Amino acid sequence: MPVTLLGAAEVRALAADLDVTPTKKLGQNFVVDANTVRKIVHLAGVQAREHVVEVGPGLGSLTLAILETGADVTAVEIDHRLAERLPATASAHGVPEGALRVIDQDALRVTDLPGDPTVLVANLPYNVSVPVLLHFLETFRSIARGVVMVQAEVGERLAAPPGSKVYGAPSAKAAWWGSWRLAGTVSRQVFWPVPNVDSVLVGFERAEPLGSEEERILTFRIIDAAFQQRRKMLRQALAAVLGGSALEASVVLERAGIAPTARGEELTAAEFLRIARATAAAAR
Ligand code: SAM
Prior knowledge:
CATH superfamily of the largest domain: Vaccinia Virus protein VP39
Strand content: 15-25%
Order of helices and strands: HEHEHEHEEHEHHEEEHHHH
Structural class: alpha/beta
CATH architecture of the largest domain: 3-Layer(aba) Sandwich
Distance between the termini: 64 Å
Bound molecules: S-adenosylmethionine
Mean pLDDT: 97
Largest sheet: 7 strands, mixed
Shape: elongated
Strand order of the largest sheet: 4-3-2-5-6-9-7
Number of domains: 2
Helix content: 40-55%
CATH class of the largest domain: Alpha Beta
Radius of gyration: 21 Å
């Protein structure tokens, strides 16, 4: 039996049956358009028998489109009512036994997933999209690529190169894990309820780690400090993390080959790592 997708009327009927009124707090904007979910799955290049992890399956719109390819899905959903109903929706739509596993948990707290998913596909809850992405890339190293839907502003940040106006801490941290690209825009009309922000699709491919885990932790602290005071030169913005004074910070920055007068928005993830390495060397 082929897997069938959810229609707009069924999405609303399911929500009514579960007494679910979509909440802003959980970023609950459900996709009611089959073309959109199929497009996401296509862009992610999901193949039969691949293991996909989905964050926030909701009523199952995107989940069914992933399962339609013959892939296996592990879905992590924080809303108990939605998590509980999903297996029944899947089986009513022709999903074979065992193809879907639902984890009834906060995605930000998940540290264990069954098997080793290699693809992340999600329409992410907007208020936690960046922390969820960073948590998943850090925690589940088997994830090699993915496509996610996020708020347009966030997607542009994730894919921004250094020097761009919107380049910030999320851009530099995301770049630590691999390469990111804007993969398409999504109309507000495909959601119920219609959100008051625009959405985009963002694709990523994991790359070899730039450095060790210890180096990553220090690099991320430096990135946070650099962007907390975005307008300041690095020798000031990083004074607290690099020795305590602007003078000490300048010495470390020069050792790393970075101009102390540069600003965080000019630096790549690899350059932030050079600062972390120079800091660690100075402490030895
Ligand atoms: N995938 C569905 C779709 O496309 O129709 C729903 C997407 S909706 C934008 C986001 C979903 O994430 C909701 O189902 C919401 O309950 C869930 N969610 C919100 N915060 C979460 C969290 N911290 N962990 C897991 N799921 C979360």
